[in-house]
């Protein structure tokens, strides 16, 4: 593959940035609305649903980027280099990450780490399911 695939480290940092940016933003809005600080909303399924929706829809309107990936200049692309679609993002985030990870009790996430580290194309389980990869900007 002649594409410049993004490795595990940069992808992990992008995910950490997204986590903190979303948690701080949502917590701030809730603080302004309720007048008290709480992160109870981030426990259980609430956070998982919010994060999955964010990861599914934001790349569709932002050309393959979420905030963390934009900061680090990496983006989600299709293998054939065409524009990503809802179908691809649904397969990647909802099926490949959310459902498969929960069904396998997190085992697919561990396998994905090793795939991104050791595969030449740096594609994880969710990338294979959706026909995507994460690439540096060009």
TrEMBL record:
It comes from the Bacteria. It is found in: Cell membrane. Pfam families: RDD. Its main location: membrane. Residues 6-131 form the RDD domain. Coiled coil: none annotated. It is a multi-pass membrane protein. Keywords: Cell membrane, Membrane, Transmembrane, Transmembrane helix. InterPro entries: Pra-immunoreactive, RDD. The chain crosses the membrane at residues 12-33, 45-68, 98-118. This is RDD family membrane protein YckC.
